Amino acid sequence: MIALTLKMSGVGLLFLLTLFLTNNFSPDLVGQYSFSRSILLILGGISIIGAEQSIIYYSGYLRSKNAINNIKSVYFKTVKLILFSSLLLILIMNLINAEFINSFFEVENPFGLVKKVTFYLFFHSIMMLNIEMFRALNKMVISEIFRNITRYGLFFIGAYILLINDLDFYLVDVYLGCFVVLCLITCILLALEFKKLGEINPDVKISTKEIFYTSYPMALNAMTFFLMQSTDVILLGKFEQFDTVAYYDTAVRVASLTMIGVMSVNVVIAPKIAELYNQQKLDELQKLVKSSIRLMLLFSTPAILFLFVFAEFVLGLFGEQYKSAKMALFILITAQYITTVMGMAGNYMNMTGKQRILHKILIFAFLLNVALNYLLIPKMGMNGSALATGITIVIWHSITIAIIYKKDKIFVF
């Protein structure tokens, strides 16, 4: 319930932030922000190399071995991997021809935005790792405050300062700069938590190589998942202008309201899934899954019904022109509600050593999503993008739950 409350508060704050941006900044600037955010999701999924998932996995694993104090060593080895991957991405980006990127999109100077995002990847990745590290240490409240409140609130303040000083054109810079500040704050707080840890268990050792081999499949999964989350927005930027991107991205954000329940439950139970699975307590694991799915449905249904009834009113709050995304919103929330009962599938596979299987499923889903977006956006605009996304998420979730049942005889729906 604490996680749910903070999630709802975060979604409410994000809603107010989006409302503030769309009513006070031009659609072009909001589109640049949305485009940069999508690029950050994709490149961030690469730079963090799955560490935010693997640190949760290792917390459950170490607890099953009575060696949770060893998590500090895992953390610092993971930071080294993130630093290497972030520097490698900066190098690659400086070797890419700008015209190649710019010629792919219809929007103005996308390469400049992509390159700018790249320089902030390390700070964003460490911030996300720290948030998950708090969760691994059972500091759920701190973790969720930073995940749902602080990172949106800081940007809200920065955007307001830009507005009152007539510095709108720095919107993307302030958005990215917030991750530097949050990285430093979370590092300081995490250092204080590390001082409270006791002696390590010398019988349980996890090498950097082991961390990498656990993390990189999760990294591939996260990258592919973020690609799927961002493909619609990015490809919409190829075929349409930034204002259309802004309208559609707003619909995506509003639709995310329906996933509060799913995300809240997954945040809480992920370490427990890893712990029970490593102890082979499959009957307890099945009970945990069933009760969690009931909570997901209980939390998600009211939001779904509300948006179906008041979709036009909600979108109109962002500006009259944003009502054009009404049909896209209907498509997205319908697909997300279908997958609510399957919302634990990806989390379950990551926490039970099935990362490589999940990666194959997500690669298929990503390719399907790209193909459907290319096919449907030119014909249906933003509605085509929403339909492509909806079809994709239903298909990959269905495949995943079938494989979980075949492997473990566990029902995750």
Automatic annotation (TrEMBL):
Keywords: Cell membrane, Membrane, Transmembrane, Transmembrane helix. Pfam families: MatE. The chain crosses the membrane at residues 37-60, 81-105, 117-137, 149-164, 170-192, 213-231, 251-274, 295-315, 327-345, 357-377, 383-405. It is found in: Cell membrane. The keyword Cell membrane applies. InterPro entries: MATE_fam, Poly_Biosynth_Transport. It comes from the Bacteria. The keyword Transmembrane helix applies. It is a multi-pass membrane protein. PANTHER family: O-ANTIGEN TRANSPORTER-RELATED (PTHR30250:SF11), PST FAMILY PREDICTED COLANIC ACID TRANSPORTER (PTHR30250). This is O-antigen/teichoic acid export membrane protein.
